[in-house]
Amino acid sequence: MNYILMSIRARYAKLILSGRKTLEIRKTAPKGSRENCEYTVLLYESKRDGGRGLVVGSFLCRSIRQVERMDLLEVERRSCLCREDLVAYAERPQRVSVKSQEKGWDIFAWIVENPVRFETPLPLQIVGVSCPPQSWRTLKESQAIKIGGVPNE
Fold it and tell me: What is the pLDDT of residues 79-113, one digit of tens each?
């Protein structure tokens, strides 16, 4: 099993943990296997927009796929994003290599399965992380196990 710590705004964390949001849209994804992956994603609710600054839950991700323009209707529905927000996010430059910006629409849909809301949200320090990731970061198994609440398969 691989583990990821993902920063997310409170409103999107609530949608994921309620089961309504089944795609999380990101500009990046882990290198290597994406179609047949297995990640336990721990959700850090960022302090932005009134969030708590705590790890509030987790989900299982078994597939990450690149979003193509023809998939927009499904992506809109499953990500709980309107078309305007999705397009604006996809077209907004990011601070990475010029090569990836030249390709244009480089966004990924992380498939959300088995969301688990932690009864008691936990501080980052429990997993040995002093500051939250900008988007996401990998964790060692020994770090993730300290939190518990890993989704069942």
Answer: 999 989 988 888 887 654 444 444 456 789 999 99
User: Using CA atoms, how far apart are residues 87 and 31, in angstroms rounded to an integer?
Assistant: 24
Q: What is the pTM of this model?
A: 0.87
Q: How far apart are CA 80 and CA 9, in angstroms?
A: 13
The Cα–Cα gap between 114 and 62 comes to 11
Other CB atoms within 10 Å distance of the CB of residue 53? 15
Give all domains of the chain, ordered by start, each with its CATH number: 2-145 (2.30.130.30)
pLDDT tens per residue, range 66-85: 887 657 889 999 999 998 99
> 72 exposed, middle or buried (CB, 10 Å; 0-12, 13-18, 19+)?
middle
